[in-house]
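User: DUF3817 domain-containing protein. Structure?
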Amino acid sequence: MKPAVLTRYRVMAWITGCMLLVLCLCMVLKYGFDTGEKATLYVSQAHGLFYMIYLVVTFDLSSKMKWKFERMLLMMLAGTVPLASFFAERKAVEAVHERGLATAAAGA
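Assistant: Predicted structure:
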C-alpha cells in the first residue's frame, strides 16, 4: 500500500472532525442563542462535502487494507459523531503501522 492512501485518510479524518465540531458550535449558536443561521447553513454544506470525500477515502483505505465491512462502516460513521473521527484516525494509523504497510511501501 502506498503511504499516500494513509495520508489522504488522515487529512480527511481531521478535516471532517474539525468541520463537525464547528458545525456543532454553529448549531448551539443557532438554536441556543438564535444567531448564526447563515453560518450554520454554509458550515453544514461544507461538512457534507468533506464527509462525502471522507467516505471515499475511508473506502479506499479499507479496501487496500482488506478490513472487514463492519470496521469500514464504523470508520465511516466516525465522521458523524463529534470527536470520533480523531479516535478512528488514530486506530487506523496504528493498524496500518502494525502490518508495516506504510513504511514498507515508502522504502520500495
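The helical segments are 3-33, 37-65, 69-77, 84-99, 101-107. Residues 14 and 86 are 6 Å apart (CA to CA).
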